[in-house]
Specification:
about 220 residues, alpha/beta, Rossmann fold, 6 strands, about 15% strand, globular
């Protein structure tokens, strides 16, 4: 039996989630994003656990190439980084392009490489204690590959991945149907999205109650 007595009680209403929509199009395109639809469904699935969520359209910002937390004049990443560090849960939403995560998703992930050099006195990266998941949509093969790339990058820079790790929908290969065209999510996707949300909120609560300890002289 799981011994929960050692875990301090945390008010889950204090948990927050930040989701990056890494579509290639910015919001000026005035085009509904399938990635946005799945992200909203995931955040809705977090609501029963009193997790407040926000979606950021990454392409709306000038996220400069680089691997530091501030790439200088005109770089919008520093203000987005504040949102990342304030959140308990990070969600990366990416379409499948050429069987891979979008270039926008890769840019977001690359900027968090800076965490490797930003450890505290106990060797903990700024992302320690934060939970991360991935939402993927596309009408071509590659959802598992996208999830693998995104989640590997996230745990390498200090995030903790819950059981399952990602939720996704992929249409018929070379087909034209998009996820945003569904009036309601397919049952199997809806069920798994809700399970992943449950796992995510649970893990975020545990980690907020008992953060990683690190090691003395870890820096």
């Amino acid at each position: 039996m799981f011994a929960s007595s050692r875990v301090a009680k945390v008010d889950m209403a204090s948990l927050t989630a930040l989701a990056f929509n890494c579509s290639l199009k910015d919001s000026k395109a005035k085009e509904t994003s399938s990635t946005d639809v799945l992200l909203k469904q995931f955040l809705d699935a977090l609501n029963p656990y009193d997790v407040a969520g926000e979606i950021v359209r990454a392409a709306d910002y000038n996220i400069k190439p680089g691997v530091t937390s501030d790439e200088g004049r005109g770089d919008d990443w520093p203000k987005l980084l504040k949102k990342v560090l304030a959140a308990d849960i990070l969600v990366i939403g990416s379409p499948v392009w050429l069987g891979q995560p979008s270039s926008v998703a890769k840019r977001v992930l690359e900027r968090m490489d800076a965490f490797l050099d930003e450890k505290d006195e106990r060797g903990r990266m700024p992302s320690y204690g934060k939970v991360a998941v991935c939402c993927v949509v596309g009408n071509e093969d590659g959802a598992h590959h996208v999830g693998a790339e995104v989640l590997q990058a996230l745990f390498e820079v200090g995030f903790t991945i819950p059981a399952g790790g990602s939720t996704y929908w992929v249409g018929e290969a070379m087909g034209s149907k998009e996820y945003k065209e569904f009036k309601k999510p397919p049952k199997v996707v809806d069920k798994w999205t809700k399970m992943l949300a449950s796992n995510t909120a649970h893990l975020a609560e545990l980690l907020k109650a008992r953060p990683y300890l690190g090691i003395k002289g870890g820096r």
